[in-house]
Write a sequence for this structure.
């Protein structure tokens, strides 16, 4: 049983919206309340801190258990304008951080594709951005974490400390305790504009060539790939960007322009519609090839312009599937995955392809490792979708790759263990009162 | 920061709406005095406001809901002094929701809600109005509620306290208009804050402390005496106020 400060709800779902579990939620406004919330459990209660729920699968869900929502813990604690080191409460969103940092000439060192992500969530999934090949993961920039454990202790974690809690908490999926606050280093910018260039590519070989050529001179690279193109060809659009060296420093207000008001009907996700969308996107991108200057927002956060876009996937929700495979296996494994998807006729709106650089991730369970990462979303069509994902699993496993837990809602415990060799080292750091749907699943399922 | 930065007094500075509003002032480089009864919380807020650019973010401890008339007058004088003799904007944000069913059976509980939300708040309003009148400038912003627009079974005691504030602030606005100072009552619909913890949230009726704060901040600069937050509540409440009793009484609102 959870204490009465936790309220029963079914309203809290993950971004993929595949399940709708009953959970007991508390949203503390103060760090000491947050720390108290994770100590107030009796023997069979479990708890999980969650941020803005932008993880797709079940890492941010704790069915029938307690959930501590951090988004009201959004205060700044300290900022050093000389070094860009900023200390903030864990529930602050990356968007709020940018609103503060940009006018002062700083930017996030690493940012995922949405700014509606909390600092705590960015650390707990050790998120990566379009600059992974240069900057590594978000965790590479974290200097200190304050962690509250269910036994009432509060720990200050720093990199290089030998007790391992720092490395376990970065990418620790919320299982090592509740991150109350964190200090990280922002990077200097001289303008909030970015110079972007879009280059169409006709196949994967071209993609890998452009990627290699770009990575020495462009800090940000990412590609969109058409998974409906003629069988496995892998045409797409490569975009690369850098911060402009002079100009205005202007943070843009809330990114949402329109919101999807309700769950879309299934027809929207039928194969012809998706196919047409992809073809159109490719043609439009091709027409816009070349260089331009834009605000940071459309480049880094294109999807944030549409509020609740996940509702487009209808009542059944969606599965994301993000893998990384080592460099040598990249071209072949990627081509094979695209072939499987085309054969199944289940492609996604937006498939994203990127190469990760060699900078090691600091977390024991961090997802990024050097190689090729492919992220796909699939409308949940039940068995046929799961069967396709299982076929992709085989390719990833054979290539020596791994899946991203933040995006996952169904990988087997076996695949998880195969992909994360430091799991045994991680496990002793798990707080005995902390758990999640993901954790219970990969611990028990084959 | 320049001497032209605003001086702002916030009563109930640890409220979620007040804190979000204070951040907007901080970004402008304002000088803030934060009043509340929990030092630890106010210190956390003050530190945040300073990082965000507040020229000053000071703290005064006071059990705002539990005061004597003499202490109210004295505190307003002291706080005005601490802000350099002039208050540009003052926000009264503290309050309690209470529990209607409990207030119906336990009159002490009802009395406590009225004491905090109306009796004490009215004293602060009156004392501050005197200060603004003397300055011949400045704005008093008070947080009311749409619940004050029509009594309904589920929260009419809370609603009544907010209705009382509404009329009080209207009168003060009238009085201050003679000297060029202002008073505003902001009436939010439901907001996702600790006050509404445990309620079913989400959907078009709910707003965020940030959204309401933006309206509060604007209302302090310009506009009318009555401000709904967000604005759609103006129209919703218009309809609700004019619903005939025969229909209204059939609802379970
Ligand atoms: C449109 C979109 C684009 C995305 N692009 C990328 C991308 O480019 N790269 C990338 O890496 N990811 C990406 N993501 C995934 C997203 O960045 C991660 O899922 C992120 O962790 C979500 O943060 P959140 O605040 O929503 O946390 P949640 O999803 O609520 O939680 C995520 C995890 O963090 C834990 N957690 C949250 N707060 C705390 C805390 N205070 N203490 C301890 N644990 C905590 C939770 O327990 C959970 O395990 C994207 C997501 C979306 C929706
Ligand atoms: N939330 C809503 O849905 C909603 C809707 C319409 C109007 N409003 C009004 O908006 C205002 C702000 O509310 P909120 O939602 O921001 O609430 P909140 O975050 O719960 O804050 C309420 C504040 O009132 C303070 N307070 C209560 N009793 C007090 C007392 N006796 N002395 C001093 N301080 C006291 C609390 O301080 P402590 O921490 O010290 O208790 C707290 O800071 C209130 O007037 C409320 O009535 C709210």
């Amino acid at each position: 049983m959870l204490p009465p400060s936790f309220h029963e709800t079914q309203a809290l779902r993950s971004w993929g919206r595949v399940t709708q579990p009953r959970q007991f939620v508390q949203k503390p406004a103060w760090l000491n309340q947050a720390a108290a919330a994770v100590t107030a459990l009796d023997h069979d209660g479990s708890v999980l801190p969650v941020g803005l729920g932008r993880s797709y699968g079940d890492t941010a869900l704790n069915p029938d258990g307690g959930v501590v929502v951090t988004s009201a813990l959004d205060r700044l604690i300290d900022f050093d304008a000389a070094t860009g080191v900023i200390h903030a409460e864990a529930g602050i969103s990356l968007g709020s951080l940018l609103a503060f940092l940009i006018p002062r000439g700083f930017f996030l060192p690493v940012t995922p594709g949405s700014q509606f992500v909390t600092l705590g969530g960015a650390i707990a999934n050790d998120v990566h951005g379009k600059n992974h090949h240069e900057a590594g993961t978000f965790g590479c920039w974290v200097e200190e974490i304050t962690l509250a454990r269910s036994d009432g202790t509060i720990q200050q974690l720093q990199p290089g400390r030998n007790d391992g809690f720092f490395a376990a908490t970065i990418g620790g999926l919320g299982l090592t305790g509740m991150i109350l606050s964190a200090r990280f280093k922002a990077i200097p910018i001289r303008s909030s504009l970015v110079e972007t260039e879009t280059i169409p590519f006709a196949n994967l070989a071209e993609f890998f060539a452009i990627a290699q050529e770009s990575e020495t001179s462009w800090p940000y690279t990412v590609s969109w790939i058409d998974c409906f193109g003629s069988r496995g060809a892998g045409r797409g659009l490569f975009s690369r960007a850098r911060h402009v060296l002079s100009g205005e420093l202007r943070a843009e207000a809330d990114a949402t322009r329109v919101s999807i008001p309700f769950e879309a009907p299934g027809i929207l996700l039928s194969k012809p519609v998706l196919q047409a969308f992809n073809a159109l996107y490719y043609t439009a991108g091709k027409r816009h090839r070349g260089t331009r200057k834009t605000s940071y927002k459309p480049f880094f956060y294109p999807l944030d312009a549409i509020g609740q876009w996940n509702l487009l996937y209808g009542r059944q929700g969606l599965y994301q599937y993000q893998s990384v495979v080592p460099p040598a296996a990249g071209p072949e494994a990627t081509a094979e995955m695209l072939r499987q998807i085309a054969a199944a006729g289940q492609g996604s709106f937006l498939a994203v392809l990127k190469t990760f650089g060699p900078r090691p991730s600091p977390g024991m369970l961090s997802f990024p490792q050097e190689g090729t990462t492919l992220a796909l979303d699939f409308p949940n069509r039940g068995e046929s979708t799961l069967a396709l994902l299982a076929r992709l699993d085989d390719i990833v496993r054979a290539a020596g790759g791994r899946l991203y837990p933040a995006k996952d809602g169904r990988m087997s415990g076996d695949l998880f263990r195969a992909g994360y060799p430091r799991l045994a080292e991680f496990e002793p750091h798990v707080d005995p009162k902390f758990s999640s749907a993901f954790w219970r699943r990969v611990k028990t399922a084959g | 920061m320049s001497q032209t930065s605003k001086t702002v007094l916030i009563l109930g500075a640890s409220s979620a709406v007040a804190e979000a509003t204070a951040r907007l002032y901080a970004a402008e480089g304002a000088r803030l005095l934060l009043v509340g009864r929990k030092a630890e919380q106010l210190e956390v807020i003050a530190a945040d406001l300073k990082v965000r650019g507040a020229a000053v973010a000071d703290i005064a401890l006071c059990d705002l809901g539990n005061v004597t008339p003499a202490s109210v007058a004295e505190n307003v004088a002291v706080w005005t002094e601490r802000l350099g003799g002039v208050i540009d904007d003052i926000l009264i944000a503290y309050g309690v929701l209470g529990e209607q069913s409990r207030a119906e059976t336990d009159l002490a509980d009802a009395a406590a809600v009225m004491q905090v939300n109306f009796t004490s708040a009215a004293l602060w309003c009156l004392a501050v109005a005197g200060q603004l009148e003397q300055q011949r400038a400045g704005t008093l912003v008070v947080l009311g509620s749409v619940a004050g627009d029509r009594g309904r079974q589920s929260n009419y005691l809370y609603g009544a306290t907010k209705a009382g504030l509404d009329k009080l602030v209207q009168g003060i606005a009238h009085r201050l208009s003679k000297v060029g100072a202002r008073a505003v009552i902001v009436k939010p619909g439901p907001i996702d804050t600790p006050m509404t913890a445990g309620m079913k949230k989400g959907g078009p009726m709910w707003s965020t402390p940030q959204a309401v704060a933006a309206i509060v901040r604007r209302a302090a600069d310009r506009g009318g005496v009555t401000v709904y937050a967000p604005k759609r509540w103006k129209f919703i409440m218009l309809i609700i106020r004019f619903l005939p009793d025969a229909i209204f009484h059939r609802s379970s609102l």
Remarks:
- Chain B is about 50% helix and 15% strand.
- Chain B touches chain A through 16 residues (CB under 8 Å).
- Chain B has a mean pLDDT of 96.
- Residues 7-248 of chain B form a domain with the Rossmann fold fold (CATH 3.40.50.720).
